[in-house]
Design brief:
Length: about 290
């Protein structure tokens, strides 16, 4: 097989996995037009249409599906063979792409990045922080990080540090005007900043004490999807915020924020790094997991 044919098959494999010429191009570090040209050459070579293209989507034809079923495992084997060469190196080599929620990424990576890169100089680590729900396979990530929630089939989850808890905080100025709440039931008398996901869906404040669990859904007029903004709003005296305790800790320590309902704080939640179970684990991903593992 000539090198050009192998390159065309590799481009086709990337498009089939991502269902996007743009994402395939980003993964391979080339332009979308270069990927399109490679796939068109492959289709001309085999005399069959392999992809259905519209302005909004890309899908496999029956012929394309049959080809990718045989080609994709072969590229996986090639990747495994190349990664096996790491046993002859002192440190892992290559790029590892991790997706993590922006609200927790600083706590996960702040004490890890320096030592990890220093100990693995041939490792290229790319962390993309966003609170948008991401399909890590479709978006070309090697792994993702989520809170202790259900993951789709075919994923392996590894418990990682740190363990986080939520805190309800308000400014001294706010509490000079409002009584300190002593139970979640008292929150209905307060201005509570609503927590929302990037798509606008709200999520409840959760509390637990002596085996009793309570969910409170704020109905305030301010909704935010960023914990830093929630902290800033609380600092300004706008209302109460439900944020990661780690995020608010410096302000609690210096008295600019006051924590309430600490005895009702939701149970600490574990974070998990997850990756496709059927995919060969590259040496680079392995050292990242070991650095983060509990």
């Amino acid at each position: 097989m000539r090198a050009t044919e192998l390159s065309e098959l590799s481009a086709f494999d990337a498009v089939a996995r991502h269902k996007s010429f743009r994402r395939a191009a980003e993964e391979r570090g080339v332009t979308a037009s270069a990927i399109s040209h490679a796939v068109s050459n492959l289709e001309a070579r085999v005399g069959l249409r392999l992809l259905n293209r519209t302005t909004r989507s890309v899908s496999l034809t029956d012929a394309g599906a049959m080809l990718i079923a045989q080609v994709s495992p072969a590229f996986g084997d090639i990747g495994s063979a190349l990664d096996a060469l790491n046993q002859f190196r002192d440190t892992p080599f290559g790029k590892v792409r991790i997706n993590a929620p922006s609200s927790v990424a600083p706590f996960v990576f702040r004490s890890v990045l320096g030592p990890l890169i220093a100990q693995n100089p041939n490792l290229e680590l790319e962390v993309v922080a966003t609170d948008q729900l991401v399909d890590i396979v479709e978006e070309g990530f090697d792994a993702g990080i989520r809170l202790g929630e259900s993951l789709r089939d075919g994923m392996t989850a590894v418990k990682i540090k740190p363990r986080l808890r939520f805190a309800v905080v308000g400014s001294p100025d706010y509490f000079a005007r409002h009584a300190l709440p002593h139970s979640p039931d008292d929150l209905s008398d307060h201005f509570c900043i609503r927590n929302i996901y990037p798509n606008g869906t709200p999520y409840a404040w959760e509390f637990s004490q002596a085996g009793k669990t309570i969910e409170f859904q704020p109905t305030g007029s301010l909704s935010l999807d960023d914990h830093e903004l929630m902290v800033e709003a609380a600092l300004s005296g706008t209302g109460l915020a439900y944020v990661w305790e780690e995020r608010a800790r410096p302000y609690i320590a210096d008295g600019r924020l006051v924590e309430c309902l600490a005895s009702w704080s939701a149970p600490e939640d574990w974070l998990y790094l997850y990756y496709p179970s059927r995919r060969h684990m590259a040496a680079g991903l392995r050292v990242v997991i070991e650095a983060l593992r509990v």
